[in-house]
C-alpha cells in the first residue's frame, strides 16, 4: 500500500499543478494547453525548474522570476490539497480498478470548488464531459466484477439527483449548474451505494447551511447574498465516500437500539 500512496501523492501534485491552470483559464475561456505556464503580468514563460509543484513556488519565493509579481499562495495550496486528497482516496479504494474514477472525481472537485468560489459558476466545459469520463472509468471494474447492480444504481441515482435538484432550480432555490453537478455526483455515489447517495446529499445541504449561517453571523454575507453551493455539494460527496458506512451504522443503531 505504501508505494501506491507515494505514487498517488506525486501524481496528485502534478495533477494539482494542472488543476491550477484549469481554475485560472477555463472561466476566462482560455486554452488549458497553450500557451504554456507564464506570468499573468509580464507573460514571461515559467522555466521548467520553476514549474515543479510546490518546489517551484518555494524556489521563486512566491514571486515571478522576471518581473517580481507576487504569485498567490493558493497555487501551492491547491497542489498540496490535491495530493492529500489523492492519498486519502487511494487509501479508501486501494489498488482497485475503481480508483482512477474516484481520483478523477477528486481532481474535478478541487477545480470546481475553486472556480465556483471565484466566479459563482460551474463550467459546462468541466461538468458535462465528466459524465462521459466517469462512466468510462467505471467500465473496467464493472466488466471485471460483473456488478451490474452498481451500474444500475449509479444511473438511477444520477437521474434521481438531477430531477431533485431540477425541482429546486425550478422553484428558485438552485442554479442550473448545481443541477448538472448533482447528476454527476449521483453517478459516483450511486455506484457505491444508496447510503452514500443519501448521506452525500444531506451532508451537502448541511455544510451549505452551516457555511451560510457562519457568514451571516460574521456579517460577511446578507440574507440575499448569492453563495456558491457547488463546494458544499462536492464536500458532502467526499464525506459520503469516506464516512458513509460508519455514519449509516451509527444512524442505524439509533433507530434500532441494542437489546
Summarize the structure.
The protein is mostly helical. The protein has ten helices and no strands.
Q: What's the total number of strands?
A: 0
CA-based gyration radius: 20 Å
The tally of helices reads 10
Helix content estimate: over 70%
Shape: globular
Q: Sheet with the most strands?
A: none
Helix and strand string, N-terminal first?
Answer: HHHHHHHHHH
- Give the overall pLDDT as a whole number: 91
How would you classify the helix and strand content by structural class? mainly alpha
Instruction: List segments where confidence is low: pLDDT < 50 over at least 5 consecutive residues.
Output: none
- End-to-end Cα distance, whole Å, is 39 Å
β-sheet strand percentage = under 5%
Looking at the chains present, what oligomeric state does this protein adopt? Answer: single chain
How would you sum up this structure, described in words?
- The chain has ten helices and no strands.
- It has 259 residues and is mainly α.
- The two termini are 39 Å apart.
Amino acid at each position: 500500500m505504501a508505494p501506491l500512496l507515494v505514487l498517488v501523492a506525486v501524481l496528485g501534485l502534478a495533477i494539482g499543478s494542472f488543476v491550477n491552470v484549469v481554475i485560472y483559464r477555463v472561466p476566462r475561456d482560455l486554452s488549458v494547453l497553450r500557451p504554456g505556464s507564464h506570468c499573468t503580468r509580464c507573460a514571461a514563460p515559467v522555466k521548467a525548474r520553476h514549474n515543479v509543484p510546490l518546489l517551484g513556488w518555494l524556489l521563486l519565493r512566491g514571486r515571478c522570476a522576471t518581473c517580481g509579481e507576487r504569485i498567490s499562495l493558493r497555487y501551492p495550496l491547491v497542489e498540496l490539497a490535491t495530493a492529500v486528497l489523492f492519498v486519502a482516496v487511494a487509501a479508501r479504494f486501494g489498488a482497485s480498478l475503481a480508483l482512477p474514477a474516484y481520483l478523477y472525481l477528486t481532481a474535478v472537485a478541487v477545480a470546481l470548488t475553486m472556480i465556483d468560489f471565484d466566479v459563482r459558476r460551474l463550467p459546462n466545459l468541466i461538468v458535462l464531459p465528466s459524465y462521459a469520463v466517469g462512466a468510462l472509468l467505471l467500465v473496467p471494474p464493472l466488466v471485471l466484477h460483473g456488478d451490474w447492480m452498481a451500474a444500475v444504481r449509479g444511473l438511477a441515482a444520477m437521474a434521481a439527483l438531477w430531477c431533485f435538484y431540477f425541482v429546486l432550480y425550478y422553484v428558485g432555490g438552485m442554479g442550473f449548474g448545481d443541477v448538472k453537478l448533482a447528476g454527476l455526483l449521483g453517478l459516483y455515489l450511486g455506484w457505491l451505494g444508496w447510503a452514500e447517495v443519501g448521506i452525500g446529499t444531506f451532508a451537502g445541504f448541511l455544510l451549505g447551511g452551516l457555511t451560510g449561517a457562519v457568514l451571516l453571523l460574521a456579517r460577511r454575507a446578507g440574507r440575499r447574498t448569492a453563495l456558491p453551493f457547488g463546494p458544499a455539494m462536492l464536500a458532502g460527496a467526499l464525506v459520503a465516500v469516506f464516512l458513509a458506512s460508519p455514519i449509516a451504522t451509527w444512524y442505524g443503531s439509533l433507530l434500532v437500539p441494542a437489546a
